[in-house]
Design goal:
Length: 220
């Protein structure tokens, strides 16, 4: 069996053969932050990448935005779950992704919306305190869960899912570079495994079309 990262890269490579994928760096002056993320090229249609072998949720226990211990496996068990690794100082990719998911989730029936779990794991835990996560996610969707903690723990969990992240690097001019994969992993409530990932740039409309199926444990 191929490791998760190898399987993901193979799946992404297949998508790239059609549309082309590359690394895109985005930055903004004023927030002293630079993000390097895996994103489709401007001509690539964003969407889902099926996983040949479903991935189990990583054993990950961190601190949530309320300062409480959060066990990812236990607290999302039996729930449709979207998992994303990013950081709150990200100038565009992270807030855009979370906002698109939030807009799509609001279109679900109330019961389905309450069942859905959206978990944002910080790749910049030194700056992303629980208070910072609560403020940032509160402006997007207060029901989302934000997690922060030991970077090595976060990196190990991300890598087990084929998501590459690197430790933040602070430069002499005060800017901070944070490199992270921009995939959203979708876990089924039926077996708590990820059967597909969403590439960076997936639209709110795509999430809105897929979430009703994901909530029922179906693969779009």
């Amino acid at each position: 069996m191929l490791p998760a990262r190898a399987r993901h890269l193979r799946a992404v490579a297949a998508l790239a053969a059609v549309a082309g994928l590359g690394l895109a760096a985005c930055d903004t002056s004023g927030d002293a932050s630079v993000a390097t993320v895996s994103t489709p090229s401007s001509s690539a249609p964003a969407g889902t990448v099926p996983l040949d072998t479903p991935d189990a949720k990583p054993a990950l226990t961190l601190t949530d935005q309320n300062g409480h211990s959060y066990d990812l496996v236990k607290q999302t068990a039996g729930h449709p779950t979207l998992l994303y690794f990013g950081y709150t100082h990200c100038p565009d990719v992270c807030p855009t992704t979370m906002a698109d998911i939030a807009l799509a989730a609001r279109k679900l029936p109330t019961a389905d919306r309450r069942d859905l779990r959206v978990v944002f794991v910080s790749t910049d835990p030194t700056r992303d305190s629980p208070r910072r996560l609560k403020q940032w996610l509160g402006a997007i969707d207060p029901s989302f869960t934000g997690l922060t903690g030991n970077f090595a723990t976060v990196q190990k969990a991300a890598r087990s899912l084929g998501v590459g992240i690197s430790a933040p690097v602070k430069h002499k001019d005060g800017t901070v570079t944070v490199s992270h994969g921009a995939e959203v992993l979708a876990f089924s409530p039926k077996d708590d495994k990820a059967h597909l990932l969403y590439t960076s740039g997936t639209s709110e409309q795509r999430y809105a079309a897929d979430l009703p199926k994901l909530v029922k444990g179906e693969t779009p």
